[in-house]
Structures are given as C-alpha cells and as structure tokens.
Amino acid sequence: MPSSQSLSESDRREVAAWAADCAERVLVVFETEAPEDGRPRDAIARARGFARGELDTAGEIRRRFVAGRAARAVSSPAAVAAARAAAQAAGVAHMGAHALGAAAYAANAAGLAAPDRPEALEDEIAWQLRHMTDRTRSALRQLPPVGEDPAGPLGAGLLASGVLGSIIREMQAALGDASPQEGAG
Asked: What is the pTM for the complete model shown?
C-alpha cells in the first residue's frame, strides 16, 4: 500500500512546480557561496521538467539525492538549507510530501540568510502560501499532518522537528484557511 505522503502522479506534478518556485527563491544563497556548483539549480530544473511531464518518475527517483549532496559543499547554515530546498523539490517526483520539505527548507534559508530581518522567515512563508494554486493547495491538503505518519518525509525525522517542523505545521494549518490572494502571481 502506498504511503499517504506519496500523492498521485498528477498531484506530484502539480506540487513539484510550486516546490521548485520555493527552492528557486533561495538558490542565490547557495550560489553565492558555491557559484560553480550547479547541482541545486539542476535539481530545480528537473523538478520543473517533472512538473511539465517531460521527466518520468523512475528517472527522477534515481537522481533525487544529487542536490542534497551539494549541502556538504557549503558551510553556512543558510546555504545548506538552500541546497536542501532544491533537493526536496527534486524529491517530489518520488513523494509529494517533499514539496512541504522544499518550502520549509527555503523559508529557513531565507530566515538564516537575513539575521538582521527577524520577519524574513515569516515573509517567505507568506509568499509561499500566496503562490499556491488552488490545485496545489488541494493536493497538499491530502498529506497527513507532519509527525503523524512515519512512512515518508513528514514522519518523525528532520522535517517534523525544530524550525522545519514549525514551518510545516504553520503551512499545514494555513492550507485550510481561505486566502484572498490564493494563487496570486
């Protein structure tokens, strides 16, 4: 039986585009520290290709860890989080729940990159929520609450604890709220 964190292929393709958008917003944080390392940029491009139906699930499952290894090439916590955001976006082909991981890592990267702006993390979360389409919001509502289903990225691991867990809990709570700017560009 597939995990409740998987989502259907069409829903994974839908949320992959949003996850790529989230990760791309903080890509500069990684690239400032490691300008020659194209793994996170490639992962975001692959997430977009998957979203458009140009790449298949099996191929992306085999390549999903490449961007995550880029996190070892940088030292600042913000750059590490940006690389992990890209890796999570690429992982959406495997499991839809990785979209929330991409968003959480991206919001965390934004906050870490702007220590003089305490509102940076919340501003990024607000941007992410405003840029969900109705279909993205509907797909993400199908995911179990973070920390409750051990069969996937939203289980008891990194995404369920600390800052990342708090971000995902906030996002999941907001998914049920109607937003006048939902899907806004």
From this structure: 0.91
